[in-house]
Structures are given as C-alpha cells and as structure tokens.
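User: Hey, quick favor. My workstation is busy. Could you predict this chain's structure for me?
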Amino acid sequence: MADKRNIFLIGPMGAGKSTIGRQLSQQLNMEFYDSDQEIEKRTGADISWVFDLEGESGFRAREERVINELTKLNGIILATGGGSVTSKITRNRLSSRGLVIYLCTTIEKQLHRTQRDKKRPLLQVNVPAIDVLRSLSSERDPLYKEIADFTFRTDEHSAKIVAIKIINLLEKNN
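Assistant: No problem, here it is.
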C-alpha cells in the first residue's frame, strides 16, 4: 500500500469523483486532475462536442491517452470518467500505477445528481436516463470492482465526509 502514491477515483457518473477528488486534493495537499477536464483542455471543446464529432470510440481513445499520461505522474489524485474502465489497458494502468478507489452510488442518486447536467453525452439520447444508467451499471460495475482497492458509498454523506473516511482508511493502512 505504501508504494501506491497516486489515488485514482473510479465509478459511475454522478458518484462524486470530481467533487471528492477536489476535497482529497485540498486535505492531502496533492495535485488534482479530472480526466474529462483534461480532455476538454486539450481539445478546446467540451466532452459532448468530442462525442458528437468523434463518437464514443474516438472519445475513449482520447481518454485512454490522457489517463496514460496522467497516471505516469507521481503524487496525484485523478478523477476518471465513468466509462474509462471499459478499456482493459486503462484498467491495467490504473491498478498498477496507484491506489484505486471505487466510489459507488445508487441509480436514484445518479439520476438526481445528473438530471440538469447537459455535459453527459450518454444521457443526451432518446432513452429514459434510468434505463441508460441501469445498462451502464450492469456493464461497468464488475469492471470497477475488478480493479478497486477500496469501495466507498457516496449516496449518504457529503463529499467532505467521504474524503475524510478515505483519508482515515489510508492512514490506517499505512
């Protein structure tokens, strides 16, 4: 555990990866990155535009490259995109280059947290969001569990409380 300096947050959209990542960053004095924000910075466009122009496969290829670069850094906290784990290469990089924390939540909480967010291309389809989230969950949940060193539920606590729980666990395991 002590040799894993990076902290990688995985989980579905709306689980709180970015918010909790920023809290951890502040409390642990570590650099924070969000893979979606990095892609937007590098392309000069938002994720929805990348999805529209390149499709999901084009976006995933960009995501894989960005996560590869970021996971080579030391002492960072990285919030990954919910679908990043669909790449076996990315799963291997995450699990070998840092501590992987799966932030999980209920589909109902995901719906509540994402209902007004227009930056979720997978939810901007003519299918009810709950059906999309259920489908994504059944596909991705086993992948999250496959590489997670620890799992935390985020549906009943604030980001600050979850961050404190993560820090306490890290201190206990060092």
